[in-house]
Amino acid sequence: MRPSPTITLPAVTPDDLANGLLLLLPVLVVVVTATIALILDLAPPEWVSRRFLQWVSAFGLVVAIVYVAALAPLAQRSPRAFGGFLALDSFALFFEFLFLVAALLVILSANTFADRQESAEGEFYVIALFSTAGLMLMAQAAELISIYVSLELSSLGLAFLAASNKRDRLADQGRKSTEAGMKYLLLSAMSSAILLYGMALMYGISGATTLADIARAFSRDSTPAVILSMAMIIAGFGFKIAAAPFQLWTPDVYQGAPTPATAFFSVASKAAGFAVVLRVLNEALPGLTVEWTGVFGVLAFITMTVGNLVALVQTNIKRLMAYSSITHVGYLLVGIATASPFANSGILYYLLAYTFTNMAAFIVITIMARYVPDDSISGYVGLAKRAPILALGLTAALLSLAGIPPFVGFFAKLYLFLAAIERGNLGLQFLVVWAVIMSALSLYYYGRVIHAMWMREVEPAVAATQTEPLRTAFSQWVALAASLVGVLFTGLAAAPLLAAAQTAANTLTP
Amino acid sequence: MQAQLWTILGLPLMAFVVIVFFTRRSKDLSSFVAIGAMFGSMLLAYATFIQVAGGARAVSEFEWLRLFPAGASEAAGESGTALRLGIQADPLTALMLVVVTTVSFLVQVYSRGYMVEHGHKDPGFSRFFAYLSLFTFSMLGLVLANNLLFLFISWELVGLSSYLLIGFWYQKPEAWIAAKKAFITTRIGDIGFLIGLLILWNVGGSLQFTDLFEQADLRSGALFNASLLGQPVLFWACLGLFAGAVGKSGQFPLHVWLPDAMEGPTPVSALIHAATMVAAGVYLVARTFPLFEAVPQALSVVAFIGGFTAIFAGTMGLVNNDMKRVMAFSTVSQLGYMMLALGAGSIAAAMFHLFTHAFFKALLFLSAGSVIHATETNDVREMGGLRRKMPITFATMLIGSLSLAGFPLLSGFWSKDEILVAASENANVVLFAFAMLTVFLTAFYTFRMFFLTFAGAYRGHHHPHESPPVMTVPLILLAIPAAAVGLWGSPWMGFGFQRFLEGDRFREPVGSTPVMLTSVVLGLAGIGLAYAMYGMRQPAINPRTVGARSGGLYTLLLNRWYVDELYMWILDKLAIGTGAVLAAFDRQVLDGAINALAELWRGLGSGLRGLQSGRVQNYGLYLFGGVAAIAFALLVAQGGMAR
């Protein structure tokens, strides 16, 4: 018996509305901040400087973080709002916290790039804030239409961010930035189209758009149409999280986009993809677990292998970081393929660890972008002598990415892999072994950067051009220090974050 | 006693932090901070040792985090599983504390002299002491750990500080290449370690040594379920742990990094690559011995790798002309002995040799450092005749060499004898033969180096003179334990060492006299042959003739059996090569192969015609290809299931 093919919009009661708005506060704060920044940027009073806009944006994000923290106890009690359109549970809040932290670090560290612009700083902050709001809605979306709309909202913003360096004439950066933005926009549109096909099929089969209803309809039987819709949805999300074989856009966009935008791509946008993937798989497709764990197991293997091997031969640090991020997606997919609450909490913890670690690395790369316009690894030779603290920060971040204790990257991997082998599945155990081998191999290319900074001497001819001291803004120091605290201590003192991740992951299970 | 243990661990860390953040600019102050902290740790380590000898034991741990594997949460009132970090003191730890702190202290004092060239302190003087403190902290954490997780964390930190110290003189390309090689090679072993750790957590449910040992002692249960190749799970876990040990202790086939690591400053070689870090592998196996004991197959692997490494490294030491590398090969070979002893089931013999070896090998390295400091070369061909010029160094080097060669009544004699007896009782007869032959090789290459350095006439171009007291005093202080510490474990003192370590479990060896006599004869023969070739004014046997008549063997040994070349080839061709191909695929092949299709697609009138780059379309096609592949695979899989 087929359900009737009409979308029945859920009824919204006044209570529901008030409750929903309360829980929507963090997003509203970000949107309001973005609007204020937009107005100040368009019609700036005389006393508004670039720095002022930066601090306004940062302040708004801090306020939003405070709201997220305050809402945490409330979120556990009221999981759905607006008649099921949005889920405002601990899971969503965990991701909102992650996006806000990432956005804050990106905005604080964006100076170097913005200085090279003529007057683009304001729009960078504004768009970063709007994208953040989009990402936050992605984490909350609990229904196909809201998922799709929030996904598009964030993608549009991200494409703008990638292209926002268009006026930069240094080393052809402007053209590359435009190209990156265009590429992202077009490819993202294509993947969205695939996703939409999948969603339409899903609706056609189940007659429902809320995830819980879909789950009920899909638990009965898996016809070829169901399989096809799932394949399309996996491919659409695979693009957002840059899982192989849908990773090909990553290196070009990462390399072309201005560095702070690349940082935002690599942590926030990726984490948002995982938020949606986790929610859809666990809440809408629990009946097909066998099928999608198999697919993601294979994708995990391909993703980490391709990312790692290609990273070995990179000479550009942003391309290196792009492949590195692909590799980490591979490790994370091992968690998806595990499909247990333990593994889900491991994914959340890993994403947070990755946020701190990758941001620390990208902040240094952003600062260095002024001095190494082509972003080549050889431009980092002798950095330890020139700027020991920056070199130390980047080293800690890279070691953390390689999974060396006592940095958080090690603990995140350990936790995730423990979760994966706990299932007692031979395929997963093989994946874990492979992941451990791959992460040992990764030390080779992270080590090349560390090696350039600490153990190679600058050639005299180059040294003569490096007389000026490195300029690092105060806000960049703050951002770097904050992310390094994360890199160093969120692993050794993991208990509070893990408890939050576990609570968040447990709200997912239907 | 708990506070005392944490202080032992904390002092070097404090020294590291203080040097990095406060005293970096003052070279003297930095070195005094490091040495002072080390001295404090050392005294506390001795105190701990005495308390442990008196029967005291201590554990101090805290909960690091709580796991809820089944998806249970704290709110649901389930307790989950705690992952604890902590430290402990027992005889094995106490022993290692004494070794690590003593050698580290003496090496740091010595470094105050060694890191000065022509009256100028090395530009990285403070950095050097900071690294040494970091290393000692990590190493102490490794021996104090009461669970595998904390041990692993320290283990990696040890590797990291070793990397920093080997590459300390990064102006030399050899130094940083060696540093990188060491780090990456040991990481390969660590893959195994981490996998072993994951297995033990998953199946054993704990990483605390005591919990795991309890389960292993049962000889049944989850750890003994059959898994791959019909072996019990525990076998694979032990093999993983042992892979870590193989990397750290430079055992075959991961031995390649240790000789190259000699590019670091000589005090570093003495501390890290002779006495402490490389012994960590042996310590790991000794520490987790109850696990290995429960699966005899794993012990056989340990014995085989150890025995083979002993003789394999010994052969490579025969022909090398670099003083430090000869000693590096000798270290690898001696560590092989220790592994062999462990494989033969005797922790006491292995740890006894580790204990004496730490002292006499550190002494040998520091003496070599004294020689190198005076002659400004590592090459024994540019030495000779230093006996009169450097009398103190000559004496200490002689004591070290005799001890290494197993000369009767010196430390090395007692401990090596223990290993040979253990091997004769419990090991494969081939391995025992290897061990015996290695005695001869060891004596020969040690004294070849010794005679080339001190006998005959000086062949170099400098004016060597005895080193300053800040270097010779540590040498003399180290010479005492290098000569005499072995007596503690000798029958004359009732096997005191073994009883300290094993308590009531120890039983005296019987019928060991023939083994002892044979090894003494072999050792003396080695020394004699070295004298005949290199010690006499008119060599009774000409080394050149021997080399020329050896066929390809001499070249083969000089090139270390070409193992390094093989590894480089694998790395270059396989890993980097595949990476390059895939990268090219990302950039070009994809473009070219799909171009025709892209043209077709463009012709169909998609709105993307205006774009300059053809790549976007290719990506798009690729994307749809991916969807098709996933859907196809799923449908096929499902079809398979339905049937």
Provide a brief overview of the structure.
The complex is a heterodimer of chains A (510) and B (643). With 510 residues, chain A is mostly helical.
SSE diagram, text form:
The complex is a heterodimer of chains A (510) and B (643).
Chain A: H1 14-23, H2 25-42, H3 50-75, E1 80-81, E2 86-87, H4 90-109, H5 111-115, H6 121-140, H7 144-163, H8 173-206, H9 211-218, H10 224-241, H11 249-256, H12 259-284, H13 289-311, H14 317-338, H15 341-369, H16 383-386, H17 388-401, H18 408-422, H19 426-455, H20 460-465, H21 474-492, H22 495-508
Antiparallel strand pairs in A: 1-2
Chain B: H1 2-23, H2 27-53, E1 58-67, E2 81-89, H3 91-114, E3 116-117, E4 120-121, H4 125-144, H5 148-166, H6 173-204, H7 209-218, H8 233-248, H9 257-260, H10 266-275, H11 280-287, H12 289-294, H13 296-317, H14 323-343, H15 347-375, H16 386-389, H17 391-404, H18 411-426, H19 429-454, H20 469-484, H21 496-502, H22 513-535, H23 543-549, H24 553-558, H25 563-603, H26 615-642
Antiparallel strand pairs in B: 1-2, 3-4
Explain the overall architecture:
The complex is a heterodimer of chains A (510) and B (643). Chain A is an all-alpha fold and 510 residues long. Helices cover 76% and strands 1% of the residues of chain A. Chain A has 22 helices and 2 strands. In chain A, strands 1-2 form a two-stranded antiparallel sheet. In chain A, helix 12 (259-284) runs antiparallel to helix 15, helix 13 runs parallel beside helix 19 and helix 14 runs parallel beside helix 18 (408-422). The longest helix of chain A is centred in the middle third of the chain and has 34 residues, at 173-206. Chain A starts with 13 loop residues before the first helix and ends with a helix. With 643 residues, chain B is mainly alpha-helical. In chain B, 71% of the residues lie in helices and 4% in strands. Chain B contains 26 helices and 4 strands. Chain B has helices at 2-23, 27-53, 91-114, 125-144, 148-166, 173-204, 209-218, 233-248, 257-260, 266-275, 280-287, 289-294, 296-317, 323-343, 347-375, 386-389, 391-404, 411-426, 429-454, 469-484, 496-502, 513-535, 543-549, 553-558, 563-603, 615-642, and strands spanning 58-67, 81-89, 116-117, 120-121. Chain B has a two-stranded antiparallel ribbon with strand order 1-2. In chain B, strand 3 and strand 4 form a beta hairpin. The radius of gyration of chain B is 28 Å and the shape is globular. The model of chain B is unreliable at 70-77 and 603-613 (pLDDT under 50). At the A-B interface, helix 8, helix 10, helix 11, helix 13 and helix 15 of A face strand 1, helix 5, helix 6, helix 25 and helix 26 of B.
